[in-house]
Amino acid sequence: MKVARSTLVGAAVLVVAVAATGGAVAADPVTLTVSVTDQDGNTVGGVTVEATWETESGETETASGTTASNGNVLLDVPEGASVELDVDDDDYVRNRPLRVANASATAVALGVARSGTATVTVLDGENRSQANATVRVREDGRTVDRGETGADGAYETARLERGAYEVAVVKPGYFEAEGEVEVTGEAAATTVAIERGTTTLDVRAYDDHFDPPVAIETGSVQVSSSVYDGQVSVTDGTASLNVPVNAAYSIEVIKEGYEADAERVRVRESPASANATARRTAALTVAPANERVLVGETTRVTVRNAYDEPVAGATVEVDGEAVGETDDRGEVDVPVSAAGNLTVVARDGSVASEPVTIEGVDSAAEADGNDSDGAGSGSGDGGSGTTDDDSPGLGVVPAVLALLAVGLASRVHGR
């Protein structure tokens, strides 16, 4: 019984430990023996070495130590972890950390080099300093440092391994330029000149309400960046313009009745093209089948969107109260429960239609005035008018009275 109780207690402790580590037991630590040497193979003492790795929960952890006079330092890291080794020192540096995959108790050689800096100054074709130019320092085609020039057009590199490097400079509106720089422990410097340039940008305007999108044949496009801002007309769905090179542009379709989504495109130094899309401004229209409706009856109301397409699921309100939702044909039967003018509005999400008016009437004769061509008035209103040959006529009411009189006289005479 005591054994069973001890087993249960041990299992409980294990469960708590697993829960505390997010469901995984931490890996046992192993010791890396790191030996630091310079470019000539000499051991380097007094240098701080840092080990960095990522835990299973995504957190970053580190361990560090300082090399002894023999250049060695012992660092404990999780077994099997992917570990990066680097140095933090005023005199020695690595351009890139050393990666140790699947760490185990082993010896690791970590090479370092004397550090230095250089200053890169950027000028334009008129020998003017250029601020906000991006400077990339490359080693064997790989960027090891980057930054932007200040107001004086200069950029000082970070501490790098001493030696020769390639430099690439780019600024919006200018062609990319290249040079070389020597990173030394002293005040080394170089100058790179850049020149202005433009290239062609073709923009195609589309209405992406449709699938596939349909070209927007007319209108214009607005093209903007930190070095350019212009609006160009669209012809046959396309706008073409010359823009400064090496810049990021925002593009919008400008057309009355449309709302555009801003598109972003980066233009390098070769001709570029981009698509810009827009859709008609969201809108609803309400069309009742009848303008006058007998009280107690219904009338069919149709709701359409900005593309004249039926809208299903739109809520139709009469005098502010919802009376139904449209079907797949965009239609709903609206009841007329009172005489007088009734205001009808359709809503679909945040979009509402312009109000339309339906008149509730008490008699069928009044409701008959729905014909849009004005039938029911003029010669058919019961008053005097003209016959088909335009000769004077009795009109509807006098004619009826006359017929009644003739009939009555005939009956009297028959007696």
- Class by alpha and beta content: mainly beta
**Straight-line distance between termini:** 130 Å
Poorly predicted runs of 5 or more residues: 1-25, 372-415
Q: What's the overall geometry?
A: elongated
Q: Total strand count, please? A: 35
- Multimeric organization: single chain
Q: Summarize the amount of helix as a percent range.
A: 10-25%
Largest sheet: 6 strands, mixed
Strand content: over 45%
Radius of gyration, in angstroms, nearest whole number:
43 Å
Average pLDDT works out at: 87
Number of helices: 3
Description:
With 415 residues, the protein is mainly beta. It is 10% helix and 48% strand. The protein contains three helices and 35 strands. It has helices at 2-20, 364-367, 396-414, and strands at residues 29-37, 48-54, 60-66, 72-78, 83-88, 92-93, 98-100, 106-111, 113-116, 118-123, 134-139, 142-148, 154-156, 160-161, 163-170, 177-183, 188-193, 198-207, 214-215, 220-224, 229-233, 238-244, 247-254, 258-261, 263-267, 272-280, 284-288, 292-294, 298-305, 315-318, 321-325, 331-335, 340-348, 351-352, 356-361. The strands form nine sheets. Strands 28, 30, 31, 33, 34 and 35 form a six-stranded mixed beta sheet that branches. Strands 18, 19, 22, 24 and 26 form a five-stranded mixed beta sheet that branches. A four-stranded antiparallel beta sheet has the order 3-2-5-7, with no helix packed on it.
